[in-house]
C-alpha cells in the first residue's frame, strides 16, 4: 500500500509539472494537501441469520480505504473509492476501524460500531421532525437494540426505494409539497425478522423568513434616501399600504414583526404600492441605485418594481423586473439609469409600485427600500498597505477562499521578506504608488531567479498610476502600466508572460476590518490569486485600556460558547462588583500588558477573601510584569506573566484556581465586535467556558 500511495503522489507531481503553469513551478503544495476528511461508512447486513455485513466507506480526498473488521480477522485489502466489501461475523458487537488514505502519506481513521444479532430489533424509537430551517424538509432518526441500520419510506412516491442510514444517524428528505404523509421506518439487523414503525406525519412549509434581511452598510446622510429601513432616516409620513384597490385583486398587506425587526408583508401580490406623504416628492437623480431586499417562499418567481414620477402634475412611471430566490432573501440593486433609459424623469418621485409574477399567487416580504450612491467620503483604502507577514496571506487556488494550489507558508514569508515589505500606497487624491525599495521578489519570467533582487521595469515602482475604489461593487481598479497589488504577473487577462502587460487591473477588495483587507483577482478562468493586506504602521486593534462592560451578562460561565446558563452577572451583581468592573486591562503598543486594579477588586474565597470587594491579593494584585501577543488571524490573545489575566484570575487553560497551578501563560479566544468592544472567552477545563465582554475606555 505504501508503494501505491507513493505512485499516486508521483502521478500528481507529473500532472502538476506537465498540465499547469501556476506560481513558481513550486510543488511544495503537494505536501500541504490536507488528509482525508468527512470519513464515514454505511453498514448493511443481510436479514438471513448469516451475519453477512456489507461496508461501504466514503469520504473526501481519499485514494483508498483499509478496514479492520474488529473481530480479530485480517484487515482488508485496499478498497477503492465507491467500492464496498462484505464480511461475515458471528453474533456480537464489533468496533470496525476504517482508515482512509490520502494523496500523500496522511491518513484519517474512524471507528464505527457494528451490531450483529440474530434477534429481531427491539425497542425501536423513531423521531420525525420538520427541519427548523429548511422548508418541507423532514429529519428522521431511529434507534433500536439489535439493529444495524434502518430504512425510511417517506410515502411521497409510491414504489420509491427507501433511504437507509446507520442506526442512530439522521436521514433528511425534502418533499415537493407540504401535507400529511405516511412515513414508514424499518429497523434491520442480521436477523430475518425486522421491526417497523409507521406514522402519519404533517410536513410543513416555511412561509415566512426566519432571519432578518442583510444589514445595510453605514452611509453618510447625503448618500442615501431611505423609504423603508431601520438603518437610515426614512422619508417622513410615507404610507406603505395605500388603498389602490388591491383588495379587489385578492391582495392584502401587513407589517410583519420578526423578533422586533419590522418588514413589509404583501399577501397574494398582484400589485401593491408605497406613497409618500401628500405633496412630498424625492429627487433621486443624483442617486445611483434603488435597493430592496425581498423574501418569498416559492410562488412568486419575479418582482417588478416601478418608480412613479409626478413632474409638474404629469404622472409617469417605468418598471424594472428581477428574479427572486425561493426561501431566501434576494438583495436587489437596480441602477437608476435603468429607469431614466426608459425616458423616466426621476426628480419628483412620489410613489413606488410592486407587481408579482405570477399575478396574485404568493406572498413577499420586503425590507430596506432606499436609494443610494457611491459614498462621497474618502476611500477607506487611503493609506499604505503591505502583505500581512503571515502564512496564507499570499496564495492561489481554484476558488475564492481556496489556496490549495500554492500558499506562502511561514518559511516562504521569511524567504520573501523583500516582498513582504513592498508598499501599496493609495493617496487621498486618487494616486497609487508601488514602493518597492532596493529589492523585491523577482520571478523567472522577469529574468530573475525566484529570489530577492532589484525591481525590474515596468514593475519597478516607477509607474505613474491612479486608482478608483468602487465601494458598492467591492472593487479597486489600478490604472497605470506597471502598477499592481500583490504580484505583478496576475492580471485580469491571465498571467505574465503569457499575456500582454496591462494598462489597468481590477481587483476585488473586501475589508476584514479598518486595517485589514482581502484582495482577489481571477487571472484567467478559475485561477484566483488571493492576498491579505494590512495597513502599514496600524496599531493592533486591542491596544488601549479595557474594562468589563458594565452591563448584565458581560461576565458569565456556561457549558458552551454563547451559553451562560450556569452563572451570569446580572444588573444587581454588576452594582455589587463595582470594584471589579473598574479593573483595567491595559494593552500597550509595545506589547506590554498590565492589570490596573486600584485599591480594591473582587476577592474570592479561594484567595482568602469573602467573595466581596477587598484589597488585591498576590500574585493577582496588578504587580505582574507581563506581555501579550495578539494573533488576529487565529483570534487569540496570549498573556505572558505570572499573575496577569483577563476577566477573572481563577480561569485559565488548565482549569480553575486553586485546583490547578498558578499559570505563567494564559491563552484567550477573542473576537472584535467593533473597535471599542471585544468578546473574550476561555475554556478552563473541559466544557467550562468563562465568557467576558470588554469595552475600551
TrEMBL record:
PROSITE patterns: PROKAR_LIPOPROTEIN (PS51257). Coiled coil: none annotated. This is PKD domain-containing protein. It comes from Winogradskyella marincola.
Amino acid at each position: 500500500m505504501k508503494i501505491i500511495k507513493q505512485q499516486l503522489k508521483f502521478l500528481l507531481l507529473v500532472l502538476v509539472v506537465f498540465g499547469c503553469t501556476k506560481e513558481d513551478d513550486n510543488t511544495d503544495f503537494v505536501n500541504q494537501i490536507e488528509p482525508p476528511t468527512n470519513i464515514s461508512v454505511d453498514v448493511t447486513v443481510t436479514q438471513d441469520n448469516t451475519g453477512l455485513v456489507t461496508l461501504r466507506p466514503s469520504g473526501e480526498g481519499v485514494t483508498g480505504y483499509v478496514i479492520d473488521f474488529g473481530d480479530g480477522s485480517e484487515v482488508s485489502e485496499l478498497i477503492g473509492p465507491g467500492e464496498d466489501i462484505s464480511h461475515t461475523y458471528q453474533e456480537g458487537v464489533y468496533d470496525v476501524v476504517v482508515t482512509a488514505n490520502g494523496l500523500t502519506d496522511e491518513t484519517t481513521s474512524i471507528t464505527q460500531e457494528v451490531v450483529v444479532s440474530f434477534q429481531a430489533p427491539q425497542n425501536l424509537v423513531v423521531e420525525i421532525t420538520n427541519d427548523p430551517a429548511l422548508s418541507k424538509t423532514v429529519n428522521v432518526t431511529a434507534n433500536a437494540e439489535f439493529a444495524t441500520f434502518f430504512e425510511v419510506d417517506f410515502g411521497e412516491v409510491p414504489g420509491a426505494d427507501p433511504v437507509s442510514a446507520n442506526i442512530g444517524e439522521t436521514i433528511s428528505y425534502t418533499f415537493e409539497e407540504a401535507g400529511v404523509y405516511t412515513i414508514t421506518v424499518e429497523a434491520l439487523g442480521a436477523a430475518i425478522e425486522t421491526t417497523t414503525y409507521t406514522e402519519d406525519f404533517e410536513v410543513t412549509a416555511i412561509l415566512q423568513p426566519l432571519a432578518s434581511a442583510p444589514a445595510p452598510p453605514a452611509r453618510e446622510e447625503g448618500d442615501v434616501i431611505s423609504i423603508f429601513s431601520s438603518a437610515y432616516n426614512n422619508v417622513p409620513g410615507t404610507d406603505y399600504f395605500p388603498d389602490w384597490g388591491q383588495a379587489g385583486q385578492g391582495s392584502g398587506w401587513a407589517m410583519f414583526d420578526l423578533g422586533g425587526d419590522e418588514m413589509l408583508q404583501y399577501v397574494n401580490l398582484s400589485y401593491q404600492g408605497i406613497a409618500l406623504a401628500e405633496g412630498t416628492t424625492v429627487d433621486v437623480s443624483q442617486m445611483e441605485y434603488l435597493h430592496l431586499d425581498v423574501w418569498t417562499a416559492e410562488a412568486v418567481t419575479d418582482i417588478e418594481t416601478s418608480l412613479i414620477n409626478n413632474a409638474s402634475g404629469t404622472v409617469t412611471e417605468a418598471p424594472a423586473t428581477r428574479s427572486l430566490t425561493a426561501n431566501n432573501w434576494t438583495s436587489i440593486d437596480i441602477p437608476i439609469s435603468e429607469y431614466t433609459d426608459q425616458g423616466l424623469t426621476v426628480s419628483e418621485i412620489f410613489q413606488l409600485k410592486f407587481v408579482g409574477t405570477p399575478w396574485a399567487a404568493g406572498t413577499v416580504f420586503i425590507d430596506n427600500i432606499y436609494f443610494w450612491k457611491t459614498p462621497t467620503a474618502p476611500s477607506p483604502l487611503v493609506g499604505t498597505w503591505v502583505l500581512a507577514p503571515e502564512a496564507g496571506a499570499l496564495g492561489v487556488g481554484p476558488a475564492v477562499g481556496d489556496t490549495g494550489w500554492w500558499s506562502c507558508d511561514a518559511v516562504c514569508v521569511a524567504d520573501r521578506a523583500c516582498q513582504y515589505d513592498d508598499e501599496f500606497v493609495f493617496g487621498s487624491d486618487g494616486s497609487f504608488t508601488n514602493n518597492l525599495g532596493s529589492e523585491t521578489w523577482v520571478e523567472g519570467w522577469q529574468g530573475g531567479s525566484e529570489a530577492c533582487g532589484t525591481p525590474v521595469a515596468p514593475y519597478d515602482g516607477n509607474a505613474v498610476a491612479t486608482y478608483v475604489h468602487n465601494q458598492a461593487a467591492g472593487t479597486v481598479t489600478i490604472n497605470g502600466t506597471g502598477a499592481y497589488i500583490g504580484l505583478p504577473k496576475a492580471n485580469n487577462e491571465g498571467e505574465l508572460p503569457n499575456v500582454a502587460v496591462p494598462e489597468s487591473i481590477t481587483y476585488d477588495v473586501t475589508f476584514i476590518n479598518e486595517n485589514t483587507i482581502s484582495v482577489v483577482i481571477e487571472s484567467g478562468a478559475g485561477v484566483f490569486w488571493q492576498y491579505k493586506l494590512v495597513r502599514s504602521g496600524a496599531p493592533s486593534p486591542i491596544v488601549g485600556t479595557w474594562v468589563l462592560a458594565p452591563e448584565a451578562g458581560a461576565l458569565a460561565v456556561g457549558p458552551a460558547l454563547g451559553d451562560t446558563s450556569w452563572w451570569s452577572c446580572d444588573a444587581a451583581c454588576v452594582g455589587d462588583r463595582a470594584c471589579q468592573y473598574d479593573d483595567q486591562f491595559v494593552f500597550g503598543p509595545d506589547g506590554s500588558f498590565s492589570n490596573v486594579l486600584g485599591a480594591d477588586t473582587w476577592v474570592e474565597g479561594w484567595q482568602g477573601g469573602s467573595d466581596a470587594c477587598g484589597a488585591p491579593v498576590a500574585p493577582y494584585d496588578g504587580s505582574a510584569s507581563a506581555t501579550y501577543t495578539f494573533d488576529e488571524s487565529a483570534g487569540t490573545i496570549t498573556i505572558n506573566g505570572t499573575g496577569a489575566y483577563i476577566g477573572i484570575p481563577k480561569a485559565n487553560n488548565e482549569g480553575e484556581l486553586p485546583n490547578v497551578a498558578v499559570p505563567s501563560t494564559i491563552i484567550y479566544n477573542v473576537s472584535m465586535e467593533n473597535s471599542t468592544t471585544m468578546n473574550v472567552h476561555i475554556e478552563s477545563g473541559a466544557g467550562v467556558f468563562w465568557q467576558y465582554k470588554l469595552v475600551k475606555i
